[in-house]
Design a protein that fits this description.
This protein is mainly alpha-helical and 80 residues long. It is built from four helices and no strands. The protein is globular and about 35 Å long.
Length: 80
């Protein structure tokens, strides 16, 4: 499935809104919202011509790793 830049930006915007409602985590040294930092990184990649599908695949791989590392935590049970 191909994903357009526009679709990826919309998805990021929706996820960003969800995170902002949850008072997201802060970087331990800078205090910056780490979710916003991630959003800025993705925007920068898109601006610099990285293929949106490549970005989506990388993020999907990270998400898979996060779920796998959750083990039997309550967070993982909520995802199933």
């Amino acid at each position: 499935m191909k994903i357009t830049k526009r679709q990826l930006k919309r998805i990021i915007k929706e996820e960003k809104a969800k995170v902002l409602k949850e008072d997201a985590f802060r970087h331990p040294k800078t205090g910056e919202n780490m979710w916003l930092m991630l959003n800025d990184i993705v925007d920068n990649l898109l601006t610099n011509g990285v293929d949106p599908e490549e970005i989506a695949n990388e993020l999907n791989g990270l998400a898979t790793d996060v779920v796998a590392s959750a083990g039997d935590s309550p967070y993982r049970r909520g995802l199933e």
